[in-house]
Amino acid sequence: MLLQRRIVCAALQYIGAMSIDTSRKAAPGRRIGCKPSEIRVGRREIFTAVAAAALLSACQTTRGKAIARLALPLAPPEPGLSGIYFYRKEGQLFRAVEPEVIVNGASVGISRPGEVFFREARPGRYQVFSTAEPNEIIYLDAGAERLSFVEMEVVFTGLGWQLLPVERSEREAVAALEGLSLVVPGT
């Protein structure tokens, strides 16, 4: 915990979001610690911290094990099975929100910006939702040897902005999938 606090203090000092009281003298060979009483917060410091947080959140990288860019055209699923692609386009809204995708009560993956993952399933009707909005459920009819597509989309509703699953046609999805990172199952 102490190490984490020192790292945070050093980062804040580096970006200028926190000023240390330099009137105190450190003992030889020791540095002045970072204590709440030493933090001077003004408009400049608050603005700098907010700007740094915005920039750092925009620079977030993919944390899944991306194996490659998704190759088009898409291969059909194995005989007798259905294939489902779950994807999320790059975007700035809800960038830090990474909900689990739930299909028939079981987690099948994590939805991250700029990523796509594929799951094979038996043909049938599936209930799909995310942990971001568990009350927003879609029903997906997956046919044998057919591909289905679910986009996690940022949508403005009467309740504000929400991250919701939306079923897409193959034509819409293929255009959106180009350039996304394919993620290994289980990451």
Describe this protein's structure.
The structure is a single chain. By secondary structure, the chain is α+β, with helices and mostly antiparallel strands. It folds into 2 domains: 2-58, no CATH class; 66-183, Immunoglobulin-like, CATH 2.60.40. The protein is 20% helix and 36% strand. It contains 3 helices and 10 strands, in the order H-H-E-E-E-E-E-E-E-E-E-H-E. It has helices at residues 2-15, 43-58, 170-177, and strands at 66-69, 82-88, 100-103, 106-110, 115-121, 124-130, 133-142, 147-157, 160-168, 181-183. It has a 6-stranded mixed β-sheet with strand order 1-10-5-2-8-9. It has a 4-stranded antiparallel β-sheet with strand order 4-3-6-7, with no helix packed on it.
Mean pLDDT: 73
CATH architecture of the largest domain, please? Sandwich
Helix-strand pattern: HHEEEEEEEEEHE
Major sheet details: 6 strands, mixed
Rg result: 23 Å
According to CATH, what is the class of the largest domain? Mainly Beta
Q: Can you give the helix content as a percent range? A: 10-25%
CATH topology tier name of the largest domain: Immunoglobulin-like
Task: Note the main attributes of this structure.
single chain, 187 residues, alpha+beta, Immunoglobulin-like, disordered N terminus, 3 helices, 6-stranded mixed sheet, 20% helix, 4-stranded antiparallel sheet
